[in-house]
Amino acid sequence: MSRRPILDRDMITRMTRLFATLATVIFGATLLAAQQSQYTPAPGAELLHRPLDQILDVNVRDGLVYYRALKGERGRLDRYVASLNVTPATYQGWSKRQQMAFWVNAYNAFVLATVINHYPLHGNVKQIPGAFDKTPWRAAGKTVTLDQIEKTILPEFKEPRLYLALGRGGVGSGRLRSEAYTGDRLDRQLADVQSEFVNDRHMYRLDRLANTVAVTPIMSWREADFVAAYGDKADAVFAQRSPIERAVIAFVTPHLLPSERELFKKNEFKTTFLEMDWRLNDLSGRVE
């Protein structure tokens, strides 16, 4: 009489993990297929950016990204990245708003591609050698790095809210939207970026007990741009504050609660900058 093989505890554990992994993959694929079949382009989504709009709609939730799923079907992202190398003549024919939307979308797509090229990461996106300052990308007939887009191209538009729209791959960087930016909706999208700023603890924190206002370091990195746009818009009561403090105050004040505005008017608070939280904005390993 033949004897049945005896399964030891380690083998049972490995088999359990295998079945759990298979179940997760199957469920994720099914969910992804269902979401893709239900995709409806955002109003005004330009033809060039429609593939990115779908990628973000399916793979981004509350600023976090399903990197594992995105890597599993990266063909659409790769094709979109390749499509960004339009001719200079085509680019020059666009409106200023279309050009701004183009560069924000390009930056965000390049970051997504950078992450999935190295996913799963053992650390954060800043630890990928040359991710921001050396890796070349082609866009609008130019060879650019992420840093060149942020530090050389975007300043030409004199619109500092663009820096807060950049999804740098960290939970403390700009909140990645579940839609692409488009020229005809850019004003509304950037207005949303500004209004959501005070509700994002990675962007803004008011500590009543310590009497401090802390904001994202992005505003200090791009200080000249924020000062130029908002430095002269703060109330006269803040005239003795530094230019960047006045810019911060003018930027956040329209969206504060009445009680917060009253605290601001006392003009006794200290302004500081938060530390950037570079933890990967990965929905697979959800962060708070």
Tell me what you see in this structure.
The protein has a 3-stranded mixed β-sheet. It contains 13 helices and 7 strands. Helix 4 (75-83) runs antiparallel to helix 6, helix 6 runs antiparallel to helix 7 (146-153) and helix 11 (223-230) crosses helix 12 (243-252). It is globular and about 55 Å long. By secondary structure, it is mainly α.
Helix content: 40-55%
Low-confidence stretches: 1-7, 18-37
Q: How does the helix and strand content classify structurally? A: mainly alpha
Q: Count the helices. How many? A: 13
The overall pLDDT, averaged over residues, is 89
**What is the element string, with H for helices and E for strands?**
HHEEHHHHEEHHHEEHHHHE
Query: What Rg is obtained from the alpha carbons, in whole angstroms?
Result: 22 Å
Shape: globular
How are the strands ordered across the major sheet?
A: 5-6-7
| Assembly state of the chains shown | single chain
Number of strands: 7
Portion in beta strands: 5-15%
Count of the domains:
2
End-to-end CA span: 58 Å
Largest sheet at a glance?
A: 3 strands, mixed
